[in-house]
Amino acid sequence: MTGSNILLNGKFLSAAPTGVHRVAQELGNALADLVFEEHEAVRGLRIEVAVPHDGIERSHNMRLPVRLLSPFRGIPWEQISLPLKSGDATLLNLCNIGPVIARNAVTMIHDVQVHLSPESYSKGFRLWYHAVQPVMAKRHRHILTVSEFSRQEIAKARLCSLDHISVVHNGVDHVLNVASDDSVITKFNLNQSPYVLALSTVQAHKNISLLLKAFADSRLSGVKLVLFGGTAKASFEATGIKVPDNVVFAGRVSDGELRGLIEQALCLAFPSTTEGFGLPPLEAMLVGCPAIVAPCGALPEVCGDAALYCAPDKEEEWVEGISRLSIDPAFRSQLAKAGVHHASQFTWRAAAIKLAGILTQI
Asked: Which ranges of the chain have pLDDT less than 50?
């Protein structure tokens, strides 16, 4: 593909930020840096980001040249405007979905959670993904994913064959580019006792109900569970889950506040029953916060020997693991150092070089 035009699908710039949107932005900017450096990995590639009108404001966060495409917005923009106005450029879609009618496209499917854990998603979301992804995966020139686990699962779901899929691991070093903001620590009075950090979500595969059961155990009465994210206490209670008194809902936090929370946490708990990658544990590990994770999905592949593993259906193991970190500072320090070393290997620069190599070879 020497001398190829690459057009990054910028629909993610018009939507509320999510984990996959983070990947698209960081990979796009890392590619831009390689172009600026005239790195051999991007030799012959001309890379732009296509943006709908409602994505202009956030496009300023991108270091790639911007191409404004109209009309429409949202799904109609992605499925109609983008492919019809992309010319001879190869479309690069990094957020699970791309234009179905396109053939000259490379698309990243992060996971097949919609197949593995359908109860985690709305009916409309499931129907859309089940309708679009199989057609898209077979029509597009190549499929990317973020772990070998996801590569195998995509093939098992019969979206496409293994030889049609390449792995580009996520980076994690973006967390180092944000100044720590510990005002959230004072806001929620978290400097009086140790706390464990976790995502606030009722998605079934994230398995946060296990942590709530663990924190009801008297052995963790002196430790708080801090949940960050948009899901409030009432959402858990609406599903019949009892929320213990030592749980704090921090709500949505900025990147700086999240770094502040991570740096002072006893550990980050991540009990997911499946993950296509699992970015939060690596983010925590990189800044010296140990991670306790379930040995599920891509988490063993991503976290290696640098995390503490507890079964996703045994809250007793989580109580014991958290308690050990709380009472054994030497063990916690050892795990934290291993985490920093391991997570530092996952950089967006390395991911962009791998991606550029794929784009020039397919």
From this structure: 1-2
* 3-state SS track over the chain: CCCCEEEEECHHHHCCCCHHHHHHHHHHHHHHHHHHHCCHHHCCCEEEEEECHHHHHHHCCCCCCEEECCCCCHHHHHHHHHHHCCCCCEEEECCCCCCCCCCCEEEECCCCHHHHCHHHCCHHHHHHHHHHHHHHHHHCCEEEECCHHHHHHHHHCCCCCHHHEEECCCCCHHHHHCCCCCHHHHHCCCCCCCEEEEECCCCHHHCHHHHHHHCCCHHHCCCEEEEECCCCHHHHHHCCCCCCCCEEEEECCCHHHHHHHHHHCCEEEECCCCCCCCHHHHHHHHCCCCEEECCCCCHHHHHCCCCEECCCCCHHHHHHHHHHHHHCHHHHHHHHHHHHHHHCCCCHHHHHHHHHHHHHHC
| CA 158 to chain CA centroid, nearest Å | 23
Contact 331, 266 (CB under 8 A): no
Q: Rounded to the nearest 10 degrees, how much is the dihedral formed by the CA atoms of 261, 263, 268, 274?
A: 90
CA angle 221–222–227, rounded 5-degree value: 80
How high is the pLDDT of residue 3?
53
Contact in structure between 103 and 139 (CB atoms under 8 Å): yes
Question: Can you give the pLDDT at residue 6?
Answer: 98
CB 250 within 8 A of CB 277: no
Separation between Cα atoms, residue 237 and residue 252, nearest integer Å: 19
CA nearest to 42, candidates 89, 94, 102, 1: 1
pLDDT at residue 118, rounded to an integer: 87
Q: Smallest Cα–Cα separation from 267: which of 339, 171, 185? A: 339
